[in-house]
Amino acid sequence: MTRAFGLTWDYRCPYGRIAHDHVATGLANGADWNVTFLPFCLGQSHVEEGMPPIWDTPQLDSGLFALQVGVAARDTDIEKFVRFHHATYEYRHTRAGNLNDRTALGAMLAEAGFDADAVFAEVESGAPLAKIAREHMQYVNSHDVWGVPTFVVGSSAVFVRLLRTSGGDPKTAIDTINRILDNIDWPILNEFKHTSVPL
After folding, report:
1. DSSP string over 56-110
2. pTM of the model
3. Nearest alpha-carbon partner for 140 in 54, 20, 17
4. CB under 8 Å to 56, separation ≥6 — which residues?
5. Within 10 Å of residue 149's Cβ, how many Cβ atoms?
6. How far is CA 22 from CA 10, 60, 72, 199, in A?
């Protein structure tokens, strides 16, 4: 049975990288999931009350350009997007990549099979930024989402912090995400948190 869930992302988040590694690895290896990738701007989540939203000054946010590129890619071809998405997280967190480096993002778009110029043109149209603002606020308002990575399943939203990637192992990836979804479906479980980082 197909399992449907949403998952927030911002390429700056190291825990987002880990969760999305499991998801991308699982999807690339036949996981029966219907995933909605939800852009969540960490910069907006830190805007002080009463101040203008980050959407008004996107050039001042270190991760919003890449997030716009990701949304443009997502809405063009979801399978190619997953490849680009995984590569972008790895670029940021294993190579300390600059998320505003148009050349680097363009190379990853091309490697995933996109026409990079077309994706950048879509970003320049302003449509991806408007979608990010709308989707970010939609899940803040409907599910009290406050961070990355948050899994959204029906009326439930759960922030999940994993400590290890899949290491490229499909079974690990699929089992990990299914275990998270099982716990979200467990109605009496509200909070489960280690008091220290497990070894």
Report:
1. GSGGG-TTHHHHHHHHHHHTT-HHHHHHHHHHHHHHHHHS---TT-HHHHHHHHH
2. 0.96
3. 54
4. none
5. 25
6. 16, 31, 22, 20
Under 8 Å between Cβ of 132 and 71: yes
Does residue 136 have a pLDDT over 80?
yes
For tokens 């989540």, the residue is 45
| Eight-state DSSP code of residue 17 | H
Predicted confidence band at 197 (pLDDT cuts at 50, 70, 90)?
Answer: confident
What does the chain come to in residues? Answer: 199
How many helical (H) and strand (E) elements, i.e. helices and strands, does the chain have?
8, 4
Token duo for residue 83: 């490849």
The DSSP symbol for 47 reads: P
State which amino acid sits at residue 135. Answer: E
| 14-28 vs 170-185: helix crossing angle, rounded to 10 | 110
The answer, yes or no, to whether residue 199 has pLDDT greater than 90, is no
3-class SS of residue 28: helix
